[in-house]
Amino acid sequence: MIENSIIDINDFIKIDMRVGEIVKVENLDWSNKLLKLQVDFGAEIGVRNVLSGIKKWYSSEELLNKRFVFVINLNERIIKNEVSQAMILMIEGKHKPLGWQSVSDEAELGAKVG
């Protein structure tokens, strides 16, 4: 266990993780790392933009209409006039990040994870 990575339970419960479905993927010509994802979190939260550094591992087709877990309560981040309003969670793989395979199509959009 790495000591500096230990957090208190009160810090953990602040993280709002939700199920979202990627409904649009845009290639950002100015970046060789980032894809712009539009993610639907259901009626309560709506659609948000997410910039993710997964371009070299995933094509639009592999991501489109798939459900993943996202952290939705981070501060917005602006990169070259593009806004990122959440962060996709991925499992570290040997050769590429792996999506949370356990999120099925039956998982309700916007459902809390935790």
Give a concise summary.
With 114 residues, this protein is mainly β. It contains two helices and ten strands; from the N terminus they run αβββαβββββββ.
Low-confidence stretches: none
Q: So, the CATH homologous superfamily? A: Nucleic acid-binding proteins
* Mean pLDDT rating: 90
* Overall CATH class: Mainly Beta
Quick one: biggest sheet? 6 strands, antiparallel
What is the CATH third-level topology name?
A: OB fold (Dihydrolipoamide Acetyltransferase, E2P)
Helix-strand string: HEEEHEEEEEEE
Radius of gyration: 14 Å
The level of helicity is under 10%
Overall geometry comes to globular
Tally of structural domains: 1
Number of strands: 10
